[in-house]
Amino acid sequence: MAIFDIQILIQTILYFCAFITGFVISIPIGVNRIEFQGLCILYSEIDWTSNNQFILHASNDLNCSFAIYLSVFACIFYGLGLGIYNGYALYKSTKDPTIGSQMWVMPFILMNSLVTLVMLVSSCMISVGFSSFCNGIKKNGNRCDLFENTKWKNLKDNSEFDSGNYFKFLTVAQIASWTSFLIWLCQVALGIMRLIRNRRQRSQNMDISDKDTKPIATVEPTE
């Protein structure tokens, strides 16, 4: 029966989970922008008029683009690459139990720490931006999801569009973003554990090597 390196197995699963969250973050935000005719509603402002209607002032496109591009490059591309790399190492560990100590550790700890930090920023941006948009709708005593799948009007060209499931999309993206942050945080912790484990193993190997090279007995020279 093949024996896997448990830590490599866990990290492989987490990398592919991060890969999946990349789609769950980028697709809902991207679809939401398409339905709102390219407008980003994160951090958008809403002004209510006297006739119980409101005007939406969309925010900077960067607020949505940052989360989309980060999830694509950090989660989808980078996560998939490391998932494949660790999957191969997992396969090799069935034949060589010491494969874990031969893998690069420090570069991935640094890279994963950077991804974790940036993912934290992105998650905060999505949550705060979503809350800001909903608070604008709630000013008139409405629920945030009240205007889903309703006709909205673009004042620039007087065209109408369907708002779609904006509340559900942003809720899913928000949950996925925080989940991805926790995944990358776990990866950093596992990387540090691997680094400590490898150093202890090398230290033990050096101690064994020193003991093997010590003489069994000493012989006093005869006069």
UniProtKB/TrEMBL annotation:
Coiled coil: none annotated. Keywords: Membrane, Transmembrane, Transmembrane helix. It comes from the Eukaryota. It holds the Pfam family Claudin_TMEM179-179B. It is a multi-pass membrane protein. It is found in: Membrane. The chain crosses the membrane at residues 12-31, 66-91, 103-130, 175-196. Residues 204-223 are annotated as: Disordered. Belongs to the TMEM179 family. This is Transmembrane protein 179.
